[in-house]
Write a structure and sequence with these properties.
Two copies of one chain form a homodimer.
Chain A: H1 5-24, E1 31-33, E2 39-42, E3 48-58, H2 70-87, E4 91-101, H3 107-121, E5 127-135, E6 141-151, E7 166-170, H4 175-185, H5 196-202, H6 208-217, E8 220-225, H7 230-241, E9 244-248, H8 256-265, H9 269-274, E10 282-286, H10 291-299, E11 306-313, E12 319-322, E13 328-330
Parallel strand pairs in A: 4-5, 9-12
Antiparallel strand pairs in A: 1-2, 3-6, 4-6, 7-10, 7-11, 8-10, 9-11, 12-13
Helix pairs in contact in A: 1-3, 2-3, 2-6, 4-5, 4-8, 6-10
Chain lengths: 344, 344
């Protein structure tokens, strides 16, 4: 029988995690006091903004523990946070990981979760500097606080889009939403894991490198990641910048995979694109003449596509979709809302 | 019927919390971008260490939601984190609050929880700069990340105690453990809340002001808060400083309330003092000749007693208790361990 948390105890588990991170994690400079103490201590760099974000994943709510490997779950939880730092143009540096786990969980699963964390942090030279582990009876949770830094002049905001700006998006939003539908509808849980859209849901790509390159270029006016769905986050830009937006449906980048999946699922691919979908792509606004520079900035780090999908307008809070026949539809931003009746 | 989270939704709830914090919270300097964004941005002060701690409270594990008011629960969750920052000699500055809540929870309860957070942060000029709220089905949780600062030369550690040092403790550890016993054994849930030892459990006092004063004095060699119980945390000092300790049982500060309670509960007051108890007092070590200065430092901010209870020795990892008859008992540090069988 595999060793469980009940077998090794909290301190035994922490000891194993320290060992694992020492071996498989990197050491970030600037840490005066790291994991193992109640409090971590770091020396921030002068001239830099310190960024702090936290995101919590709960089983049954943000992931399905029986349809994702512990390694992928660890990666996913860290990606969600890295995405937030990257959307500000920042570099991830230090993570604190709070876990709520069940006593019958195999130790190897927890270790693989930490491998997943390290796998995402290591490329940035970022590390886990603290956290805590708590016993729970029910749905496990992973709550991560991630600290990062960005040069003071390069901080990207959601509140600085201007009427007339072009709206750009990285990658293919909507894929994760389709992947989630496949996961929910599948009978055999393991076979489906390798489906490309299921992978898009289980281990989404953050665009932190791209976000940093965009921030460094100086050509973006605003930026946000699509953690609340494309429309939800475009809505955040509109609300916080006091602007509106028009989107051209034909320009929305629908991947061939998503088009196929939508057919199979009997769903509208544009709805999948616009509504809740955990893709962690970036929405960027820029003066129209600078859109090409945004594309070049992204191309300098990766080959992810950047697509111009519409324009920022001065109709505060109003987002319109122009259909192929030229008619306009008012679309209300609906992001993640976990509490209202019917919400996931 | 009171409004629940399902009635107002996640964004509705967040809007209410913003309003509440604007009215009842303080604004901490140095925040470039605060609550409402996915990521907060701050400008740390040069010459200061940035401290980061996180602690998670889970219903049934760290508190009993039917035996604590939402206001007190908010206070308690924040105190636990403030205590960690204070034990390093630090000043609390910025909090991120992650909540796992049930949809049928009254909005007023969540608001009162935030009032509790603000009540503890306000005296430090500290504020909530971010966080997130997630729907859960079962036991609610409160996971707080607290950032603070301390002058680089004043950072207090647990790893710097020296053989020959005096061991001092603030207040009366063990009271919270007795309070928890009363809570667990009580039938009528509300009457018991005002019992002084139940209050010691539900709304423990942190010693952050005292910790700062001790750090500023420069006379302490090591410091830690008693979040893992007196013996658990003395054990952390011994392990991380590669030292041992002797304690004199007759010197342990057992409050009159605790002595009475122990009789009533048929428990040993010294066991209550030494083992798991959520009092959040401070253990301080200092050269013996400087013990009086530690007491003066604490007296400069508060009238909480400071008691010398033993000495640091060079017997690495060995903690002994000298009984009134002069015999010595080896006592193994047992701190919080949530996973091993039989652990809470």
């Amino acid at each position: 029988m595999p060793k469980t948390l009940a077998d090794v105890g909290e301190f035994g588990l922490i000891h194993r995690i320290h060992k694992l991170l020492k071996k498989e994690g990197v050491k970030t400079p600037g840490v005066t006091l790291g994991i193992g103490d109640d409090t971590a201590s770091i020396r921030p760099r002068p001239g830099y903004e310190l960024l702090v974000t936290c995101d919590c994943l709960v089983d049954g709510q943000h992931f399905l523990s029986d349809r994702i490997t512990p390694l992928d779950l660890g990666r996913r939880a860290m990606v969600v946070n890295i995405s937030d730092i990257g959307a500000m143009g920042g570099q991830p540096l230090y993570a604190l990981v709070s876990l709520g786990l069940k006593t019958d969980m195999p130790v190897a699963d927890v270790e693989n979760m930490y491998r997943g964390f390290a796998m995402e942090l290591n490329p940035f030279g970022a590390s886990i500097i603290g956290g805590n582990i708590t016993k729970i009876r029910d749905a496990i949770f992973i709550d991560i606080t991630l600290l990062g830094e960005v040069e003071q002049s390069k901080l990207m905001l959601r509140s600085t889009a201007k009427a007339g700006d072009a709206i750009l998006v990285t990658g293919y939003p909507g894929q994760a939403a389709a992947g989630l539908q496949f996961l929910l509808r599948s009978q055999s849980r393991k076979d489906i894991r390798e489906h490309p859209l299921v992978r898009a849901f289980n281990t989404p790509s953050h665009r932190a490198r791209e976000g940093q390159a965009i921030a460094r270029s100086g050509y973006a006016t605003a930026m946000i990641d699509t953690s609340d769905g494309f429309l939800g986050d475009l809505g955040h830009i509109c609300q916080d910048s006091s602007v509106g937006a028009v989107l051209i449906q034909e320009e929305l980048p629908i991947s061939e995979d998503l088009r196929q999946a939508a057919l199979e699922l009997k769903l509208d691919p544009y709805e999948l694109f616009l509504q809740d979908s955990d893709d962690y792509e970036l929405i960027i606004t820029s003066r129209p003449k600078n859109a090409a520079q945004i594309c070049s900035a992204v191309a300098s780090v990766d080959n992810v596509p950047v697509t111009e999908v519409g324009k920022i307008t001065d109709s505060v809070g109003d987002i319109q979709l122009i259909l192929p026949d030229g008619t306009r539809r008012h679309i209300t931003p609906v992001g993640w809302d976990h509490f209202t009746k019917g919400g996931r």
